[in-house]
Write a structure and sequence with these properties.
Elements: E1 18-22, E2 25-27, E3 30-34, E4 38-45, E5 55-63, E6 66-71, H1 77-86, E7 93-100, E8 106-121, E9 134-140, E10 144-149
Antiparallel strand pairs: 1-2, 1-7, 3-6, 4-5, 6-9, 7-8, 8-9, 8-10
């Protein structure tokens, strides 16, 4: 039997090693990043001479908003970005979400275009709890590309 080797590493990457980057600066410390997906709704079409089934054509592509969560610190960058957006300033950024392997090497980079914050949420407070205060930023964007997949 010939020695057969899988063309890729069979173990999946772990989801807790990632960072978010924009303007060439790594913004580490995000606790959670969700919403990284795209959807293309089929458009149904049929002509009178077609068989009695409906053809499905690719429709418009949509992207879910990305939600980022992190512990609140004295860094006001997320709030300032949201403020700039609310004031109609220069608010769109291209950002990257980067997945690392177990030794910290970049493995996959998802690039998101024309991002802007649609919602910022401060922490919920509870005097009887010892949980970390977490802020949330929801970001709209107009596209995903994969820059690296190794």
């Amino acid at each position: 039997m010939p020695d057969v080797k899988a063309p890729h590493k069979p173990d999946p990457y772990l989801s807790y090693r990632f960072y978010v980057e924009w303007n060439g600066i790594i913004h580490a410390g995000f606790r959670e990043c969700t919403g990284l997906n795209s959807t293309q709704t089929p458009t149904e079409y049929r002509e009178g001479t077609d068989p009695p089934t409906v053809r499905k054509l690719p429709g418009l592509v949509t992207y879910n908003n990305i939600t980022l969560k992190r512990g609140i610190t004295n860094n006001q960058e997320l709030w300032k970005w949201r403020q700039d957006t609310m004031k109609g300033g220069e608010y769109r950024k291209d950002i990257s979400i980067v997945l690392l392997d177990e030794i910290g090497t970049e493995k996959i980079r998802w690039n998101l275009t024309n991002c802007w914050p649609v919602t910022w949420s401060g922490a919920d407070f509870n005097a009887t709890s010892n949980e970390v205060a977490v802020e949330t930023l929801e970001i709209a964007h107009e596209g995903i590309s994969v820059d690296k997949w190794s």
